[in-house]
Design brief:
heterodimer, A: mainly alpha, 2 domains, 76% helix, flat, B: alpha+beta, 16 helices, 8 strands, 62% helix, 9% strand
């Protein structure tokens, strides 16, 4: 590893985060033109920092280092902000938007609420998992096996696709759409998935 | 762009974030806290046996002699047999035959059994949530999926992601503090949260994917299923043969790959005609945990698995481990992962705190749940400290550790719920601090004459700092100081 290049990468990354902070301050002061320049400069620095990181520590490892330094710098600045912050005179501040309380944990809905929750669990849990496995099967069956590294790439893609698909489906199935709509979406995906699997010879 | 997300979509994501967060909260918190400690598992292993010699250089002949002597002393030939060579993160040499491991000195003489019950417990807790094998791994994988979903919905539910990037208000009302803490730390450590959650999910669910697909694509043979990425062991032939030449293989490897760091020498069915022998070597400029270099009976390097330079899929798969555990950049990266791990526990804790505070402010307080959650937050470090104290006291059964951990954690939650007039969480916090303090001091006293490992000093110092924070000595001193003043009036 090249310590000099790593140092340059670290300086550029920290400078990028500091510019982002300066842009944030400019926005608070109402200097929107300056803010735009600072934001652009910050992203240019953060992107440019990847080159010395890659030269100093390797492309993949250097990128990981860059993210670590960026996160550390950002967290340090924001924590400093937290400790230095003075509360408003009336002791309150404007709250950011938070999750709507749609009755989760209400405990007043009786068995209908229980059944709704149980069905949401089935949709986001077992059903989403089954769908992601179905996707894995389709991916595995449909993968073009002509390349030299096809078998390894197919396996890695499948191992990555299952948790990714499940996480996306779980997000979808627990969102604030009507439960009937979510159930229909799930049913549509099951039908599409099973149809694709059948076409690929999955039930032979 | 972010601020233009449709309000309805943002509301959908917020709902998802709340539902998934509530479902995963307790176990996710246990995983985040244990994972933070787990980052330093090698340092803890060194702390548990601080007197074992540490070195970075060892001669190939010493390794060869140690392997030959160990093999000759075994009652039965092992199926798996491997030697861990000293590297920067773990400057010790050990040899393992199936389930038993020994540390050795630089001359290759075995000097002590590897005996690390705390590290074993940590591994059981973080990899499996102490459940058996695939079941535990799968549950941890599912929690990884939920955490990934939380990152997705958390980011998409935050239309002011960039506008509020540096706004954090610790002082002010509780809900403001918790919301700012959750959002800011969540956003700034988001790449870490996403990577750790996703790699954990992928590693945890890999077995289940194999169970589903292997019957159709590799006749139920799991090893064959994973072979395109990780390679496979050769055909068995158990007729006796000399052990493949380790010293020549190490010398050849060093000559051919001077930039790589040999880490493990491993055998499958050693000293048989069908033995498989390989050197796992670290690639200092890559994220992959290493690559396997095969060698033959005479010690000639015959090829590699391709984890470092083969298919992209192999390289990605071999990078999942290092990205998850932060083991790709020495102590500095581990320390950074430790910091991010603490931030992740804070994000999980503040997420549920926000939900509880909101209920309270809307006139629907869940007092028992609030106390149970506080019991979880402080009961988890208490239960872990209790296990550590037991280990130092010489109770080495992992079964006992697992039972004690869950009984202590469940007891903490139940007591916190059942005793509303007592600040159980505060008592748990101080107990955790006191247990840690006693454990560190007792450990130092027991190992007074052999406290050689720098990592052992570091771990003891870190545990002392953490214990002091848990004990809140400033408040204790203030309370102690008030008493005489009150008495003098």
């Amino acid at each position: 590893m090249n310590a000099g290049m790593i140092l340059v990468g670290a300086i550029l990354t920290v400078a990028g985060v500091l510019l982002l902070r300066a842009a944030w301050m400019a926005r608070r002061a109402g200097e929107l033109t300056r803010r735009r320049k600072l934001v652009s400069g910050a992203w240019v620095l953060l992107a440019a920092a990847l080159a010395p990181w890659a030269a100093g520590a390797g492309a993949d490892k250097g990128t990981a280092f860059a993210f670590i330094v960026m996160m550390l710098a950002g967290a340090a600045i924001v924590l400093r902000e937290g400790f230095l912050h003075r509360p408003a005179r009336n002791g309150s501040g404007r709250l950011e938007r938070e999750g709507r309380d749609n009755g989760n944990g209400n405990g007043n809905g009786g068995w209908r609420l229980f059944l709704r929750r149980a069905w949401v669990f089935v949709l986001a849990g077992p059903l989403s998992f089954a769908l992601s496995l179905l996707l894995a099967f389709i991916l595995y069956a449909a993968w073009d096996m002509s390349g030299e590294h096809a078998a390894a790439n197919r396996l890695a893609a499948t191992l990555i696709a299952v948790p990714l698909a499940w996480a996306l489906l779980a997000t979808w199935m627990t969102c604030d759409l009507r439960l009937r709509t979510r159930s229909l979406h799930a049913l549509g995906l099951v039908v599409a998935g099973l149809g694709s699997a059948w076409l690929l010879g999955g039930f032979a | 762009m972010w601020s233009r997300l449709p309000p309805r979509f943002v509301a959908n994501m917020l709902n998802s974030h709340t539902v998934v967060g509530l479902a995963a909260s307790v176990l996710l918190y246990v995983l985040c806290l244990s994972g933070t400690v787990m980052v330093f598992h090698e340092e803890f292993a060194r702390w548990e046996q601080p007197g074992v010699p540490e070195f970075l250089q060892v001669s190939p002949q010493s390794v060869e002699n140690m392997a030959q002597e160990t093999l000759a002393g075994l009652d039965e030939p092992p199926h798996h047999f491997y030697i861990m060579l000293p590297v920067q993160d773990m400057p010790r040499m050990s040899i393992t035959a199936d389930e038993t491991s020994w540390y050795a000195n630089a001359a290759g003489e075995r000097i002590a059994r590897v005996d690390t019950p705390w590290t074993t417990f940590l591994t059981q807790l973080h990899y499996y949530l102490t459940l058996p094998g695939v079941l535990g791994l799968t549950l941890v994988g599912i929690l990884g999926v939920l955490m990934t979903a939380l990152v997705f919905s958390g980011v998409l539910a935050h239309p002011k992601l960039f506008r509020d990037a540096f706004k954090l208000r610790f002082k002010g009302n509780a809900r403001l503090r918790e919301t700012d803490t959750h959002n800011r730390l969540g956003v700034w450590a988001m790449p870490f949260h996403l990577v750790v959650a996703f790699t954990g999910a992928a590693l945890g669910l890999a077995s289940l994917v194999a169970v589903t697909l292997a019957p159709r694509y590799s006749e139920g043979d799991f090893e064959a299923f994973f072979a395109p990425v990780f390679g496979e062991e050769g055909a068995e032939d158990e007729r006796p043969a000399p052990l493949a030449d380790i010293s020549t293989a190490l010398a050849n490897f060093k000559a051919q790959h001077p930039d790589l760091v040999p880490w493990y020498v491993s055998f499958h069915d050693p000293a048989t005609v069908g033995q498989g022998a390989e050197i796992l070597a670290q690639h200092p400029r890559r994220l992959v945990y290493g690559d396997n270099y095969h060698f033959d009976q005479e010690g000639n390097i015959t090829g590699s698995t391709g984890l470092a330079d083969g298919a992209l899929g192999q390289q990605v798969a071999a990078s999942l481990y290092t990205l998850h555990f932060g083991s790709f950049g020495g102590l500095l990266v581990k320390l950074a992962y430790g910091v991010f791990g603490i931030l992740s526990t804070v994000v999980v804790a503040s997420g549920i705190n926000i939900w509880l505070l909101k209920r309270r402010q809307r006139g629907r307080p869940a007092a028992a749940l609030e106390r149970a959650w506080k019991g979880t937050l402080w009961g988890t470090p208490f239960a872990m400290s209790l296990v550590l104290a037991l280990v130092v006291a010489g109770v080495n059964s992992v079964g006992v550790h697992v039972a004690v951990f869950w009984i202590a954690l469940t007891g903490a939650m139940v007591l916190a719920m059942a005793l509303p007039r007592i600040a159980v969480h505060d008592i748990l916090r101080r107990l955790a601090g006191a247990l840690l303090l006693v454990a560190v001091l007792a450990h130092a006293a027991i190992h007074l004459d052999e406290f050689h490992s720098p990592a052992a000093w570091g771990i003891s110092a870190a545990l002392l700092v953490f214990a002091s924070w848990l004990l809140k000595p400033r408040r204790l001193l203030a309370a102690w100081g008030r008493e005489p003043m009150a008495a003098s009036r």
